[in-house]
Input
Amino acid sequence: MTAIRNNWTREEIAAIYNKPVLDLIYQAATVHREFHDPQEVQVCTLLSVKTGGCPEDCSYCPQAARYHTDVKVQKLMEVNEVIDKAIEAKEAGSTRFCMGAAWREVRDNRDFDKVIDMVKGVNSLGLEVCCTLGMLTPEQAQKLKDAGLYAYNHNLDTSEEFYDDIITTRTYKDRLDTLSHVRKANISVCSGGIIGMGEQEDDRIGMLLTLATLPEHPESVPVNALVPVEGTPLEDQPKVSVWEMVRMIATARIIMPKTMVRLSAGRVRMNLEEQALCFMAGANSIFAGDKLLTTPNPGYIKDQEMFQQLQLTPRKAYKEEVTA
Ligand code: SAM
Ligand code: DTB
Ligand code: SF4
Output
């Protein structure tokens, strides 16, 4: 029986990350089978409920106001429009619905009240409702929890050491503080990062170390490959190889066995065989639909074909729709 450990050392994680890659996949696949059904993949849907115009300077992000990208600023969506999208996502097989806002932090205003209503509405559809809205205070986390929020996404993105090279308008500690407020409100924690931003392997290992030594592992760790967007400082970053994605996913799987590891951004540039390797290495969730927040993603049809080819099944909903 593999134990859940929160006392991993950098050396241990580095040794796992650097194993011969096929051996690494084998070990991750073994741990994966102990904790999860390897045929099952959770399908999630993202919706950008407030797009662009963000005051932060995250170098990867097309939604930062200071970079000149093709993203059009859109104010907060209406609650009924969001619910319609959630129904569509549910009908297409998603069991988790994540609403993203291009905010630095949540403010206690009418927009937040609207988000609270969105959370209530999506929750009543029987979907796991997730939000990613930037920094939260403990009180805001509690308000979201009371409205029925299931999970909160707040990525560390990279290591503490590399963080200042990517973002200067907030600190690593700000991120960790929000994660702790989310945890204290009993909301499921979703936190991961991006590879392909020019970081060293040590930074990838450092980020995994921070996640795996939190008092409790995040229930969900998204692994994103940078989607380079024209106009952002990282527009010319070279594509990461599938082996780097596989090493990240497999290491996350081994050191955080119970966690849902999500093969997140970057799937549009991966073929079926590459994605299959990621599932073999322990990824057990994807984002579906032809758009992530603002960038393209493989559409439903392509993913349906992939599920058929790989004989995977979308995970069933864990709860029922609330009927009046
Ligand atoms: N504004 C909130 C925040 O930063 O926490 C929520 C939305 S933000 C777009 C959510 C996450 O998307 C970021 O933390 C980052 O990991 C990911 N992301 C943004 N742009 C990306 C890109 N070009 N490629 C890969 N991941 C990206
Ligand atoms: C995460 O780690 N990846 C998702 C979700 N959490 C919110 C977002 C990816 C965004 C990719 C860039 C875009 O589409 O704007
Ligand atoms: Fe804003 Fe989030 Fe994009 Fe950073 S990642 S610029 S905080 S929307």
